[in-house]
Amino acid sequence: MRQKIVAANWKLNKTLSEGLDLVNFLQSKVNEHDDVIKIICPTFPLLYPIKEILDSSKKFYLGAQNCSAYERGAYTGEVSASILKSVGCEYVIIGHSERRKMFGETEEVLFQKLNLALQNQLKVIYCVGEELDQRKEKLHFNVVKSQLDNLLKLSNEQLQNVIIAYEPVWAIGTGVNATPKQAQEMHAYIREIVATKDADIANAIPILYGGSCNAMNAGQLFQQKDIDGGLIGSASLKGEEFLQIIYAAS
Ligand code: PGA
């Protein structure tokens, strides 16, 4: 049985006080004994202050939304995987479609980031997903397959520290989620691709769904055989709603 995972991707939202309030609220409400892995991914400056208020009994983990493709040096504005690790981060999102599209992150850059994150003992939430026109042209399986190439290049040991997030770009922030059937079909396909490398890892690897996942649709999505939880954007910004999504996973 794979453990369910619910990760909050706050994107470019929440000031320090708003972020601390939200985490305090979630920690006060969430059930200590649910077996859901819960991850909060705030902006960089909020990582350490949030780490300082994390209550270990409630098991929220800290994740970053990105890391640098460089290790250290003259890279103004960058934040490395080792710095993230040093402030208490345990996860990092890599390959989010917003990074791929708006910040021009290529497969090569993503591979460098993946390696640095894993070398620094961060677990990686690796995002894949097709655009709407690619789905309309029935290219979605091919697109996702090629996005998974980077993961197939990793060692089995590295791959054991990767979580895959399937996030169809047309569903992100649009209010139009993939149907449970569409998502399950892609998740099963992703597992098949990973199985071409190693069947045991394919069976164990968590695959999250992301894209307009909310308190209303999370239950049905999370019930699908190959959906192991969610990467939640806008619905993770509201305490009550994010709690409902955690409950849906437990
Ligand atoms: P959304 O974002 O839940 O707001 O659609 C998900 C994501 O981009 O990770």
Side by side, the strands of the main sheet go 1-2-3-4-5-6-7-8
User: What is the CATH superfamily of the domain at 67-239?
Assistant: Aldolase class I
Number of beta-strand segments: 8
Mean pLDDT: 97
Number of helices: 13
In this entry the ligands are: 2-phosphoglycolic acid
CATH topology of the domain at 67-239: TIM Barrel
CATH hierarchy, class of the domain at 67-239: Alpha Beta
Order of helices and strands: EHEHEHEHHEHHHHEHHEHEH
Shape: globular
The CA-CA distance between the termini, in Å, is 13 Å
Rounded Rg: 17 Å
Q: Structural class of the secondary elements?
A: alpha/beta
Kindly state the percentage of residues in helix: 40-55%
Would you identify the CATH architecture of the domain at 67-239? Answer: Alpha-Beta Barrel
Query: What portion of residues belong to β-strands?
Result: 15-25%
Q: Which regions are unreliable across 5 or more consecutive residues at pLDDT < 50? A: none
Query: What composes the largest sheet?
Result: 8 strands, parallel, barrel
